[in-house]
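User: My collaborator sent over this chain with a note saying "see what the structure looks like." That's all I know about it. Can you take a look?
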Amino acid sequence: MENPMRQKAVKLARPGFIFLLAAVVLTVAFALAGMGLLVWVGAVSIAFIAWFFRNPERMAPDIKGAVLAPADGKIIKVESLDNSPHFPERCNKISIFMSVFNVHVNRIPFSGTISGIRYNPGKFFSANLDKASLDNEYNAITLTTDRGKRICFVQVAGLIARRIICNLKPGDRVAKGDRFGMICFGSRLDIYLPERARVQVENGQKVRAGTTVLGMID
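Assistant: Without extra context I'll predict from the sequence alone. Here is the result:
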């Protein structure tokens, strides 16, 4: 699936346009009113918004069976689970924490078909806490590979984040590395892999969406 966030000409993620426009309009208004200090604040805000919503081009590695990171950030947990509300069988869960300093555009971890999407409104605990996975607002996306394997990746809102963006719907065909959405202003993304997946990352490791290999599946 190709969506507008994948166009090469776009250097700023689309959700950032409205924030950037608002900051520019306010800064111009402050300048016309002769409010020097607020003009400086506005200029800094414009720079931060443009930087936060950056949308870099990346090339997904052509490695058969590789599951790629769906988000930039740091691995904060790798664990085996007997089951989960997002994956009702034994699985491997990898949690990625995105600070405000990371690129926040999310990418598809593996090629296949979107077989389910489940949004749940919730609380806004700090995204690095374990309870954030199930208690916070989240958007769980289930993907089925061409060989019938199931992968679930969950966008989790954080303490500051108040907007989860997902441009997918059930039935969509997607390719590894495609952009599919983002979470604004700090958050977390959990990915659930089959039990037999060979995890290749560890706690504390930094990862990049669409390029870092999290694990291998058959």
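A starting point for your reply to your collaborator: The domain at 66-216 is CATH 2.70.70.10 (Glucose Permease (Domain IIA)).
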